[in-house]
């Protein structure tokens, strides 16, 4: 189970600007990963592998501005979410789960 820790940031405009930038870039990288995984699934019925998104976006600006471990974790989380989704689709089609 995940938890969230709230951190109060002092009125330091430089720090707030940096944190805002990093959050925006991670959000954009997440959206790019989701878009690519969806397009791959809809066009070729293929699932995304754990490291496939990293290979695709390694040269991307949004990937480069983040620390590499953070960017990798973002893309691996997207891949993990889609693997879970594919598993649910297969289980539903096999009748293991219902509405």
Features:
globular, 99 residues, 4 helices
Topology:
Elements: H1 13-44, H2 52-57, H3 61-65, H4 68-93
Helix pairs in contact: 1-4
Please describe what this structure looks like.
- The protein has one domain.
- Helix content is 70%, strand content 0%.
- The protein contains 4 helices and no strands.
- It is globular, with a radius of gyration of 17 Å.
Q: Could you give a quick summary of the protein structure above?
A:
This protein is 70% helix and 0% strand. It has four helices and no strands. The relative contact order is 0.13.
Tell me about the biggest sheet?
none
Radius of gyration: 17 Å
Count of separate DSSP helical elements: 4
Order of helices and strands: HHHH
* Gap between N and C termini: 25 Å
Helical content (DSSP H or I, runs of 4+): 55-70%
Number of E strands: 0
How many domains make up the coordinates? Answer: 1
Q: Describe the global form.
A: globular
pLDDT under 50 segments (min length 5)? none
Percent of residues in beta strands?
under 5%
Structural class: mainly alpha
Mean pLDDT: 91
């Amino acid at each position: 189970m995940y938890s969230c820790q709230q951190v109060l940031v002092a009125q330091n405009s430089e720090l707030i600007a940096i944190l805002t930038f990093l959050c925006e870039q991670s959000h954009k990288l997440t959206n790019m990963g989701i878009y690519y995984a969806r397009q791959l699934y809809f066009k070729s019925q293929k699932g995304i592998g754990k490291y496939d998104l990293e290979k695709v976006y390694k040269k991307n600006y949004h990937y480069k501005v983040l620390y590499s471990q953070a960017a990798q974790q973002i893309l691996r989380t997207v891949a993990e979410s889609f693997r879970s989704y594919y598993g649910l689709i297969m289980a539903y089609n096999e009748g293991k789960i219902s509405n």
